[in-house]
Amino acid sequence: MTHTTDRPAQAGADTPNNWKGLSRGAIGLLGGLVIGVSTIAPAYTLSGALGPTASAVGEHLPAILLVGFVPMLLVAIGYRQLNKAMPDSGTTFTWASRAFGPWIGWMASWCLLAATILVLSNLAGIAVDFFYLAIAQLTGQEQIAALTRNVPVNIATCLAFMAAAAWISYRGLEATKAFQYILVTFQLVVLAWFSIAAFMQVSAGSAFDATPVRLDWFNPFGVESFSAFAAGVALSVFIYWGWDVVVTMNEESRGATSTPGKAAIATILVVVALYMAVSVATLSFAGVSDGEFGLGNTDIQENIFAALAGPVMGPFAVLMSLAVLSSSASSLQSTMISPARTMLAMGHYGALSPKYARVSPVHKTPGYATVVSVVIASVFYAVMRVVSENVLWDTITTLGMMVCFYYGVTALACVWYFRREATASLRSLATKVVAPLLGGLLLLVFFFQTAWDSMDPAYGSGSQIGGVGLVFLLGVAIFVIGGAAMVVQYLRSPEFFRRRFETTEYPTAS
């Protein structure tokens, strides 16, 4: 590995500004779209999110998914504008630091790192579950599925998955792209198959709780309370999370100032269309009751597809297990892209140790940051899996708050950075100010509402300390640890926190 030096490029050119040594021109629009969809992991995400979201908002499930899509699209528009001006792999870190100063930029990037690194453990855990379930289905040996409950076997398999994903990510975006094309295509085909099969059973009258599609399902104002609405939106925001990975690859994209933004918006549009098809098909087939296959049945909510694949797809149900396995495995690998490149940028600018700015001279990837990401995620999973599964899953639940926070701050950074351009044209006003402002404010409202609701011990797994919900306490702990880490970094290297980002590398928007 070697530490690259600053090589500023011409502002506004397709070559990334302040190049950090990453591989240039490795990803195009299609490759970015595939990696973006992979990171969101539709099969894995829907399997775990449809049930809890339906339990919060009932038959208005499609509506709440559309509502969650709106702030994502608005924020993505802001990301696209920031990327045009500053195509930097640091994204949230770089942009928030430039707009609001180093302290806010550091904390926003901390939330991004916490969300992405910790969710790696969840992705690996889900991959383990479906790995043994798929083997059991293929061999007819049901006892094999129970191996996932064997803690030593579970942890060992999980660490093996993480190591394999880190190896692929370390080898660069070309290896990543080839791996993702196969797995993403497979899971999309299976999800389409599931949706069509569900609608066919509804039409034939053989569905579990056949319900004709109604326009009221798409009415978000039918949700019974704002708390239920906010809880549903927080869950729906989480299921769209991950599209921003394509922007962190801007320095490695063909057309650094344009392609990543287009790929981010295209990713969101593809995913929302897929989510609408699957959610409506599932709702129409199963309903929201607490019956055996109803979406309100708490016994199947953690893994809807494991319960419904058999009734919907018959003997081909194993394909759904393989689809969720491939979804979580591919997302495990592609999710590493974002924290590694964020830490690379932080090391490059002096917000972290210079070690994080090391780039592999062979593969042109942030090797040191990639290894650190997977080690932290692996240790976290191993410890939490031994201590308590409830704590592990509640930590994952808090990540929804982290996502809302850093997306919201980044969107508002766009507004502040381009504030002097608001009156330049109607297009500038809409794309650089109005859209990101609305998106950012919506996400921050959801952040505070979810934080308030999570104080209730009933939120998440139901665990509590002193009458306060564990989800809320874990969220506070993540912020406190981030603040402490920031202070330590300030004491070690105060130069970054004393500099004005507006005077470095990029021209200030006028």
TrEMBL record:
Keyword Disulfide bond in record: no
Entry keyword annotation includes Translocase: no
Location relative to the cell: Cell membrane
Listed GO CC annotations: plasma membrane
Transmembrane regions: 21-41, 61-82, 103-133, 153-170, 182-205, 225-243, 263-284, 304-325, 365-384, 396-417, 429-448, 468-491
Protein name: Amino acid transporter
UniProt membrane topology term: Multi-pass membrane protein
InterPro entries reported for this sequence: AA/rel_permease1, APC_superfamily, Na/solute_symporter
Domain of life: Bacteria
Keywords recorded for this protein, A-Z: Cell membrane, Membrane, Transmembrane, Transmembrane helix
